[in-house]
Amino acid sequence: MSETPSARIVGELRRRILTGELAPGDRLPSTRQITHQWGVAMATATKVLTELRREGLVEAVPGVGTVVRRPIAAPPPPASAVAGVHDAVPAPRRRRRPGDEPLTRDRIVAAAIRIADSDGMAEVSMRKIAAELGVATMALYRYVPSKDELVELMLDRMFREMAFTPPAETIGWRAKLESVARIQWDAYRQHSWMAAELSFSRPQLIPSGMVHTEYVMAALADTGLTVVELLHAAISLLNHVRSIAIVYDEEQRNIQHTGVSADEWMKTQDGTALEVIGTGAFPMMQSAAGIPDDWFTLDSLFEFGLARYLDGLGALIASRAHPA
């Protein structure tokens, strides 16, 4: 029997509370926020908070909302139960905690990437990173002054670790551009948060990422294009990959929040979509309604756009070599 939406959301919030991601006193999402984040009805959201209160994990605070309940301190054991305990039983060895390791910038960045990979970039916070490393939150700021700098460091590490070197047999500008595009596409699918964090309007200074732009421009250097055209060609290619990757990241977040895949969601919309398309106002879309699901995917969009971009660039290069 499949899990109900309310049980799934209760399970997720329970996990966050028990792992310390939501600390005592932290506010839980309101019923309105739950309906928006998980795409459920208001009644379902109310049922979620009611169940968590029933389990004793949260409590309602007037004027604040629903917050994580503070644990009730256990009474101290009777003196007779502990008398002489240090003489009779050797003290256990203290387990090594994450905080016992030296705190470094690299460890902070690595922890942030692990959180982003598993839970999404929205869940990356200094407090959560500190909890993962077993240190005080304020200790992080000695190494990473701000969230913006942290994001740049995360992106820089990801680009440095990207398997960028194209195969040795990669010859010709088209093969080189195709190779770097596929390397980025693979990386975005492994770390989907990257695409949305990269800015093309106010680009971050990320040397390991600039290597990709430099490589594309160098691959086209002998084609007869101007420097302005080389820059446009490089940015257009990389932004094609990034734009598809942003959609991929959006879908990963939708799956995480709702537990419903894109195919499953589309099946729930089929009736409404067919009703609208079947009015005759959209004959071209109606002709495409019967194509198999695996014929139109993010991978097919990536491949189609990449091929057409390279075709168009090839035509521009040919026009410079053989002007009309």
Protein architecture, described:
There is one protein chain. This protein has helices at 5-18, 31-38, 42-54, 79-82, 85-88, 105-119, 126-133, 137-140, 147-161, 173-190, 193-197, 207-219, 227-258, 262-277, 283-288, 298-321; strands at residues 58-61, 65-68. Helices cover 61% and strands 2% of the residues. It is flat, with a radius of gyration of 27 Å. The model is unreliable at 80-96 (pLDDT under 50). It is mostly helical. The longest helix has 32 residues, at 227-258. A two-stranded antiparallel ribbon has the order 1-2. The protein has 3 domains: 5-68, Arc Repressor Mutant, subunit A (Orthogonal Bundle), CATH 1.10.10; 99-145, Orthogonal Bundle (Arc Repressor Mutant, subunit A); 173-259 and 291-321, Orthogonal Bundle (Tetracycline Repressor, domain 2).
| Main pleated sheet | 2 strands, antiparallel
Number of strands: 2
Share of helical residues? 55-70%
Low-confidence stretches: 80-96
Kindly identify the CATH topology of the largest domain: Tetracycline Repressor, domain 2
Q: What is the 3D shape?
A: flat
CATH class of the largest domain: Mainly Alpha
**Terminus-to-terminus distance:** 68 Å
CATH architecture of the largest domain: Orthogonal Bundle
Please tally the helical runs, counting DSSP H or I stretches of 4 or more residues: 16
Jot down its keywords.
324 residues, mainly alpha, Arc Repressor Mutant, subunit A, Tetracycline Repressor, domain 2, 3 domains, two-stranded antiparallel ribbon, 16 helices, 61% helix
